[in-house]
Amino acid sequence: MNDTQLDANPAPSDARPKKPRKTSFTKALNDALDLGMDRFDEMFLIGEDIAEMGGDFGVTRKLWAKYGAERVRDTPLSEAAIIGTCVGAAMVGMRPVAEIMFADFLGECYDQIVNNAAKVRYMFDGQFSAPLVIRTACGGGFGGGPHHSQSVEGWFLNVPGIVIVAPSNPADAKGLLLASIESDDPVLFLEHKALYRARSDVPDGYYTTPLGKAAVARTGTDLTVVATMRMVPMALTAAEELEAEGVSVEVIDLRTIRPYDAETLLESVAKTGRAVVANEAPKIGGLGAELSARIHEECFSELSAPVGRVDGLDAPIPFSVPLEHEVLPDETDIATAIRATMEASR
Amino acid sequence: MEREQLLDLYRDMWLIRAFEQGLEAEFEQGNVPGMLHTGLGQEATQAALANNLKASDAFFPDHRCHGLNALAQQRHKGDGERIMAELFAKSTGVCGGKGGSLHSADPSVGNFGDNAVEGSYLVTVLGVALAAKMRGESRVACAVLGDGTVGRGEFHESLNMAAIWDLPVFYACVNNGYAIATPVGEGHASADIVDLARGYGFPCEQVDGNDIVASHDAVAKAIGHIRAGKGPYFLEFKTWRWQGIFAGEFRPEAEVKYWREDHDPILMTDELLIDRGVDADELAAIEQQQHALIAEWIAFAKESPPPDLVKATADVYAQWEVGGR
Questions:
Q1: C-alpha angle B124/B109/A88, rounded to 5°?
Q2: First-last CA distance in chain B
Q3: Which CATH architecture describes the domain A21-202?
Q4: Is A117 at the interface with chain B, CB within 8 A?
Q5: What residues form DSSP beta bridges with A288?
Q6: Is the distance from CB of A265 to CB of A278 less than 8 angstroms?
Q7: Which residues does chain A have within 8 Å of residue B126's beta carbon, measured at their own beta carbons?
Q8: Residue A23 pairs with which residues in a beta bridge?
Q9: Cα-flanking dihedrals φ and ψ of residue B248, to 5°?
Q10: Is residue A2 predicted with pLDDT exceeding 60?
Q11: How far apart are CA A81 and CA B157, in angstroms?
Q12: Which superfamily does B3-305 belong to?
């Protein structure tokens, strides 16, 4: 299937492309669900207010009217039962797609994800699979406060058996969601809330974007920035800024966080000799730590500077917008980390 | 109940007891890895379930269901020894030694496996039931739950969702009086779990789980209700486990005497069968036959090879290989 690649970059103002038809991230996800429901009889959608209401962010809009209440199923506020239902149904060959309204609520169904979805295949010696998708809205930047803003990939990074998908743009979101629906492994599909309104060209019709494959979102020769979700457009903005300063930055969009595409990442760092890892979550024990460790482990001799780190502060996400901005990293932090890494070079 | 049917149930109860006694002896000699939770004392409950569930149904056993698992395996595939081999962590086990006592599954006999976060499958069972309903299958999805697991939030999420969606879920609640060492009446608002289930509006019954005839009939009624498309059903078995805690027996002497001597499910069935003219020698022969069968199963388990080390990273993902050491 075609590995769609896209200009996720919110293009700099002087280079804005002239008006091709753009699709929002939300609509791209909605299209993917529609195409999946149409193609797979065994697929159903389940979650809180996803039916007639179309979900808190409108991702399931109009699907209830088209496919009916049996396949687009509202639930009570019972996250453990939502994911438990998905696991049980998947064990007998259905392809459920759950919506957990906010990623912060995954604590309510953590056991079902970690101890069931991720393990039924392994612990029962391959007699079961868990082909389910858990879509959830994550990330900060909109004043959601401590329980509606978290980046949760680190909560699941240490769990073999789970796939973590994290798109950064509408075309990937559609292709990755369809690939996740096709996947026989359980997928945690992270939708960054700040990206829902992002727009870009999205191919029509059914296509998949492969899981476990990173994309080179921008090519460069001096330094590699590795990012996911909202950090990708931010990294692209920082890269443009650095270009003006004579630094050529390559941006790798990981797209799948677990298992991640080490090959593409390490190849890029081996080429540029410098890396910055950009991550919205707190610094300790997360994706940034893993990627930084891996780059040091495998590219030590090619590195001309230690890996730079851009992370959230080691704090929960506060409600106050200025405080939230203080906690979350942005383009400026990425640009600063790139400059520091360039200066630290041997 | 017909004499022959009662004799079949009696054989099954002895199979469970011989299985657990044989396993316990091996465990004490250090031949069985991990932990041991036996179903001794709960044989009638498990025999009643095994005799009413079909291979096309789905049950989620609890941690004391070695006997139910073995019966399902033996009835539907004739290879009950593979449950024993699984407990010995051998390659010939139903999960190749990767699941063990707490995760023995074989969906081809309807066994969907335990989850050692006991009670966690109370919500998993919903999905199996929902799939059956969406596909128009007559499958019964059964969760065998202990009294202790009722403390989990999933219990209430599950009963509520089964009720609003009218799902074919059979809650087989084995109330053996204690969650490890906490008496059921101290851990829950009622010592009768059925009281906690009633608010969800589907049939909730209670039965003497050591009375094989009553238990069998109660299970048959529950499953009949579900197969008729009438939605979920909750059945509480009042029973008692022989096994104490790691430190030994912790319960009052009179209570132990009552359950082990006066209300033992096998001794109670002995009386019923003798009343129906079965010879005491025939009963003794059944006991011996089942012990002999279990001795064969244990020998099979001990002789079987351990899993190949490549299995350590097999089946983590369907679409990717995970590297070995």
A1: 15
A2: 58
A3: 3-Layer(aba) Sandwich (3.40)
A4: no
A5: none
A6: no
A7: 81, 84-85, 88
A8: A200
A9: 115, -155
A10: no
A11: 6
A12: Thiamin diphosphate (ThDP)-binding fold, Pyr/PP domains (3.40.50.970)
Q: Could you please report the per-residue DSSP string of B78-105? A: S-THHHHHHHTT-TTSTTTTSS-TT---
A68 touches chain B (CB under 8 A): no
- Do B160 and A78 lie within an 8 Å CB cutoff? yes
CB atoms within 10 A of CB A170: 28
Domain A21-202 matches domain A215-344 at the CATH topology level: yes
At B66-111, the pLDDT tens digits run 999 999 999 999 999 999 999 999 999 999 999 999 999 999 999 9
Could you tell me which CATH class the domain A215-344 is placed in? Answer: alpha beta
Q: What are phi and psi of B52, to 5 degrees?
A: -115, -20
3-state secondary structure of A124: coil
Check whether B268 has a pLDDT greater than 80: yes
CB contact (8 A) between residue B127 and residue A85:
yes
Segment A42-64 mean pLDDT: 97
CB atoms within 10 A of CB A219: 11
Measured between alpha carbons, how far is B136 from B285 in angstroms, rounded to an integer?
Answer: 45
Chain B nearest-CA distance from A287, in A, is 19
Spatial CA neighbour of A196 closest among A31, A48, A57, A46: A57
Rounded Cα gap, residues B209 and B207, in angstroms = 6
Is the complex ipTM higher than 0.95? yes
pTM score of the predicted model: 0.95
**In chain B, where the domains are located:** 3-305
**Is B124 in contact with A116 (Cβ distance < 8 A)?**
yes
Extents of the domains making up chain A? 21-202, 215-344
Confidence band for A21, pLDDT divided at 50, 70 and 90: low
Tell me what the mean pLDDT of segment A279-300 comes to: 96
What's the rounded Cα separation, in Å, for the pair B135 and B140?
13
